[in-house]
Amino acid sequence: MEKKKLLNRIHRIMGQVAAIEKALDQEAECSDILHNISACRGAMDALMAEVIEGHIRYHILGEEGRVTDEQARAADDLVSALRSYLR
Q: How many domains is the chain built from?
């Protein structure tokens, strides 16, 4: 399920990059190109946040039965901080 979700994000990002390329090729207004770049950057940041969260939850914390409440809270805090930073 996670893999499909991440791949869908990648496909949307690829579409955004293609839109940037098309805008540049057609010599679109700079403001339009900058908006497209900004949207693509936001999508990449969101993808990075998803991958980092998955890494923390599955590779650092490991099995759920062995995670303490304190570790789970710390992981949630870290993920929240990363998401805020990447916005």
A: 1
